Amino acid sequence: MNIFVRDGQFFADGFSVRHSFLLSEGESRLISYIAKEGAGAAYITLKKGSLTVDGEGLVVISRREGAELRPLPTRYAERDRLEVTAEGTLYCVECRGGERSRLAVSEGAVWEHFTSLPLSHPSLRLIEGQRESIVELTASCRAGRYLAMISLSAGKVKLLLEEIGESILCRGNEVRVKRTLSDRRERVVESVYTWQGAGFALSREIRYTREIAITREEMGRELLECVIARDDQALLSLLSPEIRRAEAIYDYFGEVLSVESPLTPLSPTAVTAILRRNGRYIAANYDFDYDDAGLIENIRCLDEGGDDRG
Question: Residues 6 or more apart from 307 whose CB is under 8 A from it?
Answer without folding.
Answer: none
